[in-house]
Amino acid sequence: MLQILCLFIPIIAAFFMPFFFKKIRNVHTGWFVLLVPLFLVIYYTTFIPVISKGETIIEQLNWIPSLGISFVSYIDGLSLLFSLLISGIGALVVLYSIFYLNRKKEQLHNFYIYLLIFMSAMLGVVQSDNMITLYLFWELTSISSFLLIGYWFNRDKSRFGALKSMMITVAGGMLMLGGFVLLSLMGGTFSIRALIEQAPQLATNDLFIIALILILLGAFTKSAQFPFYIWLPDAMEAPTPVSAYLHSATMVKAGIYLVARFTPVFALSEAWIWLVAGIGLLTLFWGSFFALKQTDLKGILAFSTVSQLGLIMSLLGVSAIAYHVDGAEDTVFKYAAFAAIFHLINHATFKGSLFMIAGIVDHETGTRDIRKLGGLMSLMPVSFTVALIGSFSMAGLPPFNGFLSKEMFLTAMLSVTEFDLFNFSTWAPLFPIVAWIASVFTFIYSFYFVFKTFTGKLNVDQLPTKPHEAPIGMLISPVILAGLVVTIFFIPNIVTDTFVKPAVVAIQPFLYTSPNDVNIHVSAWHGPTPELFMTIGIVIVGLLLFLTLSKWQKLYSILPERFTLNRLYDITINELLGSWMTRFSKLYMTGSIRKYLGYMFTAIPLIVIGTLIVKNAFSVTFEGSSPIHLYAVILIVVLVIGTLTTVFARSRITSIIALGSVGYTVSLFFVIFNAPDLALTQLVIETISVALFLMAFYHLPKFSKVEERTRFKFGRAFISIAVGVMVTLVALSSHSQKFIESISNYYKETVYTEAGGGNIVNVILVDYRGFDTLFEIAVLAIAGISIFAMIKLRLSRKEKNYESK
Amino acid sequence: MKVNNVILQFTAKIVFFIIFFFAVHIFFAGHYTPGGGFVGGLVTASAIVLLVIAFDLNTVHKLLPINYIYVVAIGLILALGTAAISMFVEQPFFTHFFDYFYLPLFGKTSLHTAALFDLGVYLVVVGVTMTIIQTIGDDE
């Protein structure tokens, strides 16, 4: 139980944040939040000994068993690694945010609630074995990311970035859901583990390739792969702790996780290898190339993240090759999956620290524009050291962990040239070449990031605030991460045995049965191999290009803005959806309720009478009907008079009272037809709605003279007659046809024995069809709160302190 | 124009309690005889509306200083929570439980989780109705 509960602990904690923020003003709310990830880190650490032996732990909580939907916490090497990253980096980021966000100026409770929701959602994504709940958590990460990017919601750019990320990731998520549904149709289960077991049979299905593409689209949008990466640079408007956490260490890796998790299902397919490896490599190059165009510190890091995600993605694509090679566990093809996971860990450490440094620079100097920065080394020595460690690791230099995984990445890319299935021999040489070029650019932007900020001339006048070193609290987290960067370099095998190998087993269950079977030993020096020469080449070419950067960086401005992907997004959102669609909607959305009612009451009879005709469902028999009594006739006369009065009355009061009388008469009908529950409800509803009408009465515009002499409108009369005819036809037909046995007998038989009640109507409401009632009261509540919001919280123009519009 | 509402106000004070207790009655009776949370909520709301008509919104708000939005929230949480309880004992969402107990004073009584759910419905209905009436009535 605890395992499932842990998924929800952050969300449960989120409920208490407003109280902490409002009642305990003297303590930064972040300190309370910090307890949550700390607890989770400790909790998940206890799993390490078991999981690193290759065992898996599963716990399940049924949600909707009839549909096979359940909350599952499935912990194996892969999900444990991600869970530890989420909680570990989460703890560091929360600690960092305590010093980054001002306790007095910021709406901290909002921030931390979003962050905690994200934490739960992300844990859910990586632990769910059930695809439907996986999707649920997946979209929850998109929503919390949207809220966090838009945290400073009075900035135009924040709102734009939030919307953009939401549009792209949610669209991808929907496609992914389609893929999940197809997979479950093919395999007959929502469980990923069960699907992996049937992978060979699935691959023969016609829908297999469609499911593959849909799921990849979900992964690519989330992990900012080409051409969907455009949301990530705009997401940098979020507060820096969020960028470090969501947009570099965890959420953007959800796509990586998904690809890794589904590798055993899809590895059989040629398309999978081509798409994942190809798009990954393209993204790797594209991101590293355009990182040098950026002038914003966080912009550089955003493109660098895009590029590094591409790197991991391409490795996962290559790792699928192992499926097609006999005895791959002893060949060069074993490296790709290992390198992917190893680099994922390393990337989280160095990129997290770099983001935090970018935040510190922004916080202490007031700008992130690299053209204004420079020479901060002497003022901020600690930050400089951390930035240097992070950047060198990113560039792939020893003695930092990036070097190890970068070497292994090159090994994996070189291995592709030895693969001869699927026409790979034609294209394979491209893999190491592109990888090498991208690595050169990675090297340059890593240097660009650290040296343009911290060395060179210091222009204090250009900076909005006088720079100084950050407070100690803010430095703790980046220093810890930088420490890890160095530590991992010196003890790589302890790290890989504990975390990487169990995860590799989860990605390649067809190769290994336990982590001990993964026969890879990481070492910094393995002789004069091609990888080493490639690295030396990267350093030399990279250094040369970095030193001449100022001469050729201008080339970037030659690229026209008009043909970028961002422009495509803007056109789609602003022109296509924004202005064309608005124009189209305005054709029929005129703002007049009468028109809307007209549409609705034209459509309903059309559809219903149409169905009656097409299905030839109309029939009339008066068999078994009871004789009409005099009091029924009297009630009908009253009803008709009341209705006509409502319509033709000269004053509204008369209309309202006449309408009330119609309602009361209907409830009398219920009484004589033995429906006391309905009668009671109708009676009270009528009383309250008359009172409501009288309340609203004051706010209605006066009956104008024009209105009073309303001419007889043929169209409206026709619509109302059509509605009347429709109801009559449906009532007669449904009474006359007895195709389906009435369900009331079932209720009569079970109401006491199974539901423990006596009044069927009420038991239907609370038990048999409780879902309906639950949703109805939810809708009712939304309606009530909306009315309250529209009337009470009307913003006057002055109160709108947004930037523009 | 000054209106003398003495009779209405005096009657309302007494009738309010009659209606309110009737509401409580039909709420509890709902599982076996006509009634239930929805009607009970509406009847309660109509009792308060009667007070509003006899006096005015401000007076009623002083008498019953309730933030009805909270009532809505509590009702929804109660309803959702009751529905979710079953999940934690390995039963599908929305499974109700009931049993018969011998309570002092009441004798053999059926205790049913559906009643808790119905209480949620009751609170939401009262809350929403009163929120709407209060906001529309308040707005000048």
Automatic annotation (TrEMBL), chain A:
Q: Where in the cell is it found?
A: Cell membrane; Membrane
Bilayer disposition of the protein: Multi-pass membrane protein
Residue ranges constituting the MrpA C-terminal/MbhE domain according to the UniProt record: 717-792
Keywords associated with the record: Antiport, Cell membrane, Hydrogen ion transport, Ion transport, Membrane, Sodium, Sodium transport, Transmembrane, Transmembrane helix, Transport
List each copy of the NADH-Ubiquinone oxidoreductase (complex I) chain 5 N-terminal domain by range: 64-112
Give the GO terms filed under biological process for this record: proton transmembrane transport; sodium ion transport
Q: What is this protein called?
A: Multisubunit sodium/proton antiporter MrpA subunit
What is the native source organism of this protein?
A: Ureibacillus acetophenoni
Automatic annotation (TrEMBL), chain B:
Matching Pfam families: MnhB (PF04039)
Entry keywords, A to Z: Cell membrane, Membrane, Transmembrane, Transmembrane helix
TM ranges: 12-32, 38-57, 69-89, 109-133
Q: How does it sit in the membrane?
A: Multi-pass membrane protein
**Where this protein primarily resides, as one coarse class?**
membrane
Q: From which domain of life does this come? A: Bacteria
Q: Which GO terms describe its cellular component?
A: plasma membrane
The places in or outside the cell where this protein is found are: Cell membrane
Per the similarity annotation, which family is this?
Belongs to the CPA3 antiporters (TC 2.A.63) subunit B family.
Full protein name = Multisubunit sodium/proton antiporter MrpB subunit
Q: Which organism is it from?
A: Ureibacillus acetophenoni
